[in-house]
Amino acid sequence: MKPGIDATALAVVVVLFVAVTVLGFKAARWKQGESLASLDEWGLGGRRFGTWVTWFLLGGDLYTAYTFVAVPAVMFASGAQGFFAVPYTIIVYPLVFLFLPRLWSVSHRRGYVTPADFVQGRFGSRALALAVALTGILATMPYIALQLVGIQAVFEVMGLGGSGNILLADAPLFLAFAVLAAYTYSSGLRAPALIAFVKDLLIYLVIVVAVVYIPTRLGGWGGIFDAAEKKFAAADGAGGHPANFSFAAVGQAWPYATLALGSAMALFMYPHAITAVLSSKNRSVPRRNAAILPAYSFLLALLALLGFMAIAAGIKPVGLNGKPNAQLSVPMLFDAMFPSWFAGVAFAAVAIGALVPAAIMSIAAANLWTRNVYKAFLRPSASHAAEARQAKLVSLVVKFGALIFVLGLDKSFAINLQLLGGIWILQTFPAIVFGLYTRWFHRWGLFAGWAVGMAYGTWTAYNIANPLTGAQHFGGSTASIPLLGEKGYVAMTAWVLNVVVTVVVTVVLRALKVPNGQDQTRPDDYLADAGEPGVRDVLTPGATGKSGAAAEA
C-alpha cells in the first residue's frame, strides 16, 4: 500500500462521488408521476420502469460490493472455492424466469408492494406475513453492511481510516451513511435506478481495462494461474492436504454445491431484488431480464479472477491498522497496477457499486416495515402520504442497523455478511415461491417451518468460529450436515428442515381440519399483465392524479 494519501485518486473519487450524489437528488423529478408522497412512487418508482432501466437497476442491485470486493477476496485467500458465485448466478435466472412473472402479476393486480403483502393475501395470516417482513429486514442489514465494508476498503487503500479513534477509523462508513441517507430520503428508488447507469458503465470500463492490461504486467494468464497454484500448493502442503487442495477442492464438493444452490435460491428472496422487479411496468420485463442478466455473470467471473491477479502481483493486504484484511486485495491491486488517476476511477466504480445496492436495500427494508408492521399493526388507517413519510424515516434506521453489523462482526471475510443474510432470507422461500403455485401448505405449517429454519440457521451460524481470525461467532457459513457427515451451507440445511417441518405440520393440521385462512387472490391474478382489467394503473410522468398508461423506459 502506498504511504500517505493518494491525492490524485482521492480527487477523482470525490468528483465522481459528488456527481452521482447530485444525480441522486435530481432523480426525484425523473419519470415522476403525481409526487413522491406515496409508497408506489417513492418505494417502487411509480411501477413504470422498462426493460433497460430494470436491467441496470437489477444489475446495480444484485452485483454489489459482494461482487467487486468479497468474491475476489475469497479467491485470493481460499482459492477456487470462491468461484461458487459464478454457477450460482447462472442457476438463478431460470428460477427467476419461472416465478417472478407470477409475483409481478399478482402484485400489480392486488396492489402488493412487498413479498409479505403477497403472503398476507395468499394465506390470510398476519403472523406469517410479519415473519416474512421481519426476516427480510434482518437479512438486508448484513447485506447493506457488506456494501459499507466495500466503501471502507477503497478509502483505506487511498490512505483514509485505520486510526485507533473510532470516528476516524470508520469515517468512510459514516460518510457513506450520510450520502445514502440524503439522496435515498429525497428521491426514493429513482435515485439508485438512475445512478445504476453510471455505476455499470464505470464497472465495465474498469474490468475491461483490468483483464486486458493487468495480465500484460504479470506474465499473462499463465503466469497468474501459476502464481495462484504455487501459493495454494504451499498452503495445502503445510496443512497436510493433497497437493493443489484449494484448486481440486478435494472434500469440498458439498460446501461448493450447497453454497451455489443455496445462494441462487436466496438471491431473489431478498426484498431489494423483489422491489426492483415490482418496479417494472409489465410482466414481460422480469422475463426479458432473466434472459439478459446472465451478461453480468460473465462480468462476475472476470471480477473473481482479480483475486488470482492480486496473488500474482504479490499483494499483501494489510490494513492501516496493521492487521491482514483480504477485502483490500482488489483495491490494492488497482492501486499497484494502475496510474493514480485511473486507480481513482476504479475506486469510484467500487464505491458507487456499493452505494447503489445499499440504497435499494434500505428502501426495500423500509417498504417492508411500513406496509407489514406500521400499517398492518400500528396504524391501519395510515394515508399514502403517511406511509411514504414512515418509509423515508425507516430507511435511515435500517442504515444504522447495518452500521451495527459492520462495527460488531468480523469483517476480514466480508462475504460472510452476505451468506449470513442468505441463511435467514432463504427461510421465506416456501411461503413466497410455493405460495405462488399452491395453497396446499397450511399457514401454520409454513410459520412452524420458518421458525425452525430460522432457529437452526441462526444458532448454527452463531457457533461457527473462524480459526484464521479468532472470531468465535458468525465466523463462517458452512457446518456439518446432520446425518450426512458432510459440510454444507447452513442456509440449505436450515431450508430442508424448514420444508420437512412445513409438510409434517401441514399434514397434521389438515387431518385435524384446522382453518387455513382466506385466499384473497384468484388463479387469473397470476397471469395478469399491464393494461388488462383489474391491473393497477400507474401515472404518466407529469400527471397530477389521473391514472394513465405506463411510460416507456
Kindly list the characteristics that best describe this protein.
553 residues, disordered C terminus, two-stranded antiparallel ribbon, mainly alpha
In short:
With 553 residues, the chain is mainly α.
Describe the structure.
By secondary structure, the chain is mainly alpha-helical. 67% of the residues lie in helices and 1% in strands. The chain has a two-stranded antiparallel ribbon. Strand 1 (478-480) and strand 2 (487-489) form a beta hairpin. Helix 1 runs parallel beside helix 9, helix 3 runs antiparallel to helix 14 and helix 7 (126-157) runs antiparallel to helix 19. The chain is globular and about 70 Å long. Residues 538-553 have low confidence and may be disordered.
**Fraction of residues in helices?**
55-70%
Question: DSSP strand (E) fraction?
Answer: under 5%
Distance between the termini: 44 Å
Largest sheet: 2 strands, antiparallel
Q: Write down the secondary-structure element order.
A: HHHHHHHHHHHHHHHHHHHHHHHEEH
**Structure class:** mainly alpha
Mean pLDDT: 82
Shape: globular
What is the radius of gyration computed over CA atoms, rounded to a whole number of angstroms?
23 Å
The count of DSSP E runs of length 2 or more, i.e. the number of strands, is 2
The stretches of 5 or more residues where confidence is low (pLDDT under 50) are: 538-553
Strand order of the largest sheet: 1-2
The number of helical runs is 24
